[in-house]
Write the structure tokens for this entry.
Amino acid sequence: MMIPILLIFPLLAAVPLFTLRSRQAERATLTAHALLTVGAVIYWWLTGTDEFIGYFRADRGNLLFLALIAVVYCAVVPASYRYLEREKVSELWHRIYVVSMLLFVFSMTGAILASNLGLFWVFIEATTLASAPFIYFERHQSSLEATWKYVFICSVGIAIAFIGILFLALSAKGVCDLFYDDLIRNAPQLGRFWLLFSFPFIMVGLGTKAGVAPMHSWLPDAHSEAPSPVSAFLSGMLLNTALYGLYRVFQVLDAAGLRREAAIFFLICGFASLLISAVYLAGATNFKRLLAYSSIENMGIIFIGIALGGLGLFAAFLHLMAHSFAKTSLFITAGNIAHRFGTKEIAGVSGLREADRPTGALWGIGFAALAGLPPFPIFISEFLIAREMVTQGRFGLLAAFLILVTLVLYGMARAAFKMYLGTAPETAKREPPRLIEWLPQAILLLILCILGVAMPDAIRHIITAAGL
Amino acid sequence: MSQFLTILFGVGILYLALTSRMRTYIQVIALQGFILFLLIVRDFGHIDWFTFFFLAFETLAFKTIIVPAMLWRIVTRTHVAREADPHIPQFGSIVIGTIVFLSGFAVTDWVSRIDPSVDALAFGIAVSTLIISFFIILTRKKLITQVMGYMLMQNAVALLMIAMAVELPLLVNLGVLLDIFTLMFLFLLFLGKLHSTYEETSREKLTSLRDQP
């Protein structure tokens, strides 16, 4: 019974908020929703039961994604409270923020829980609509530009994905509906031509939403202009949500014996993402855009892992989890840095370690986690991907992978060290940070560190099951 | 009769390659919506009653009346009467539009050989409409024209569904309609904001967030 509760609660809770007009009620609702999401995930995890209601399903296959929504949500909610307090937003915009957050999480949860590809599409489009007010939230000229690009590019992309879904439906005509399980079970009976024909459309459409190159152009703008807690959600979860649907279609092609063809598209997008991020990270001047390009890079690595298969598949989902944790932590920390220094420009930030020790430490450790330094799990996932390339004898790919990852690391390190070291400018705010400003990120990084050193079997099983 | 309607649907989009007037864009979008409605009516008896009622409502009320009305509202609010200076000159658009439209008939021939269950003519026209709508999105500078291109794309997708006789569950159809309606509302809202911020709602104004490698 958790699925209906999880889906209905945010919709029902959003309505009275417009009449109550109370910030306390709004915050209480958001907290309750986050706790409910965590509760649902713990329930599914501990009981190990599959829940299947109509068009929705919670099982081992989507538990990792649901768990990530819950964890990221729990970190984003306190960060949002601090952001709203700091920015002194009006009552109306406070309400818009909370209601948009409820609807945004609802749409992501719906997309992950949907067991039908058509319904998945509806929820993915809804994520764009629900998150648009966030990107416009600071109401600058640049946020307006970013919002327009985000809404328009993603909507065109999602429309292309819909065309692909229609072709997929044509391939399944007379065989089955668009339920993932049915499609995978009946994959050998699907029309091969239309199935293969559908994939480039779905790849381009959902790839746009997943932020992989060359369809990534909306991502740096949207991630840099949104409030930092929202950027954390966009990067830490929204990209994964789009990837989830794409991976389910990939599984259908795999079951139909078209794995090699689908993997080519994944490899092209994966390496294009690495290349684009390596090029643009080297010249990045804004640290939120830097993190956004890093998201493109990490999605690229995940795509490469999926394309390789074997051990690469486990590595891809491990990477996905680790990236969500690290990027959520870094984006929230980036918001604190922007507040303290009054700028998002890398040139305007220096001496983080002396201006704000906890934030400086989080920035440094977060960077280490994202860069794939031991003992963090990204080190393991990148190592496993490289090992799988060696096992498959794809040394050309391995060389390209290592060179591009190193270039990305250089671009990231250059900015991270510049911000961490040196002397803080006089204009930087010197007040000590509050506990709420650093505790959620510290917990995320601590979890990552523990997972990198000794991953419990239960977590390993969840990650493995995501690829099944 | 349905072949005539399908060709008329395609001629509408071809006509858009020749024109730059916003009023004409909206008229073509409304005409295509009405043609889709007639094609749905043609299928009465072949699809279940609920789905028929829903699709008839969607094509007649939403695609023929509500969407064109919302587009007209945007046009009047932003005071854009025509696409004055596209990236590709008018003559080039005409040539490309005609080539794409004629290629649609080649697609028709190809599909009829690959899958006889598909309405090949409607499929070919839908594909050429999709390509021309992409062409409009990519080559027009005014943001409102790009929105028109998006709505033409949605009409092409609807024709594609009819051509392939693919039925989606009612829940999915309802969700799609709700999403597109909300999206139109967002377009209306943000184009209004862009107009009041930049005065001219052109893609060329949206350049403040570019990165240098």
About this structure: The longest helix of chain A spans residues 141-171. The two ends of chain A are 24 Å apart (CA to CA). Residues 2-466 of chain A form one domain.
